[in-house]
Write a structure and sequence with these properties.
Elements: E1 2-5, E2 25-28, H1 35-44, H2 46-65, E3 73-81, E4 84-94, H3 100-166, H4 172-206, H5 231-235, H6 238-260, E5 266-274, E6 277-285, H7 295-344, H8 347-360, H9 366-400, H10 404-408
Antiparallel strand pairs: 1-2, 3-4, 4-5, 5-6
Helix pairs in contact: 1-3, 2-3, 3-4, 3-6, 3-9, 6-7, 7-9, 8-9
Amino acid sequence: MTFFSVKSTGIVLCTAMSMTWSVNGFAYESNYLSSTWLNSQINKHPDIVAACEAMNAVFSRAQGSKLPLYNPELNTGFEREGTANNFHMGINQTIDLWDKREVKAAQGNFALTAASKRFTYSVAEKTAQALQALINWQSAKSKASLAFEQEKQLEILLDIVTKRQKSGNLSPVDAELTFFNLSQLLSQMAQIQVQLKQSEAQVKELLPDWLSEQQLYPELGLGVSNFQVSPQWITQHPLVLEAQAQWNIQKSAAQYALLATKADPTIGLSVGRSNRENVVGVTFSIPLNIRNDYSANAKAESQQAISAEARFHAVFRKQQFLVQANTDALVFNKSYLQRWQKLMKGRAENSAKLLQRQWQIGDLNTADYLLALQQRTEGLYAGIDLKTQFKLSEVAWLLSVGQLSLATKQLN
């Protein structure tokens, strides 16, 4: 068994959480599912390919934002004055007097951060979806196996009831009850099989090379044993960092819009010939922001920056409470699963034989026996559901605290 230790740094977050939990680490058991295989499957998914290319596009635009804002401008002219040919050739260059390029470059860097964090979360989210699909498939498979076992028990019971009825040792009512229970089970099995096929299709959609005999989800989950939420887990969460980067992008945009209200001058240098004389000229021009000083655009960008700041605080706040809710759900699900395991320890294997023996010797009538079998099955279904809820809540918790990729790396 591999053991992975996660140490908390800083003061435990308590302002937004009603409780804190101590995490010593994640423990994992060997299984067919490996981190290398899982990552390869996630990277193949079209959604991740699209997200990667979208990030690359932002990278390309960011590279462009670091280049000079203004290119030189070439101008030429030719005219004939009497018998003389006059011409000139010059070059004009607008000067980035207010260093607007630096602001654009900073905006591009913030865009890079936002894009990379969005991609990181997209990969983590897709990984969570794949793991949850595997969990649901294994749950449906366990239920289908249990229903098949129950069907076999009822068929054996039906055969015994039919023989005892022919010999006069059993009333027709008992036989009818068995028929009714079997017919009810057939409807239940049909629903379970449909769920199994649907969950299997979902797994195949998310994991193209998945085989049902391999790449199984760990029976004990990803092995989160204790819980302590470090403040850094929330402040460094990809969604929070992306929102922060978007805020910085908008602040840079507001700064650029403010600089845009200041005009940049253009200087020109030309040479030529006029009336058989050599001519050298220097020009200077600057826009006069009189009719439109672009202050409205600057104000709008500043307001957008305030809006982006509010969105950042909203994302951070939402993530805090999501972590709190997921932590509580994980603790409760694990607690009730452990209680169920303690309660059912040894009973699942022996209860069916015990009930059959009691029915055969006459301590249980057929109606009570069928009811007891159904209750046993419902109890086992409850165990499957509790285990499924625990695994799902474990994945959701890891995703919300931004530690899912770290946890899946420990898969063998």
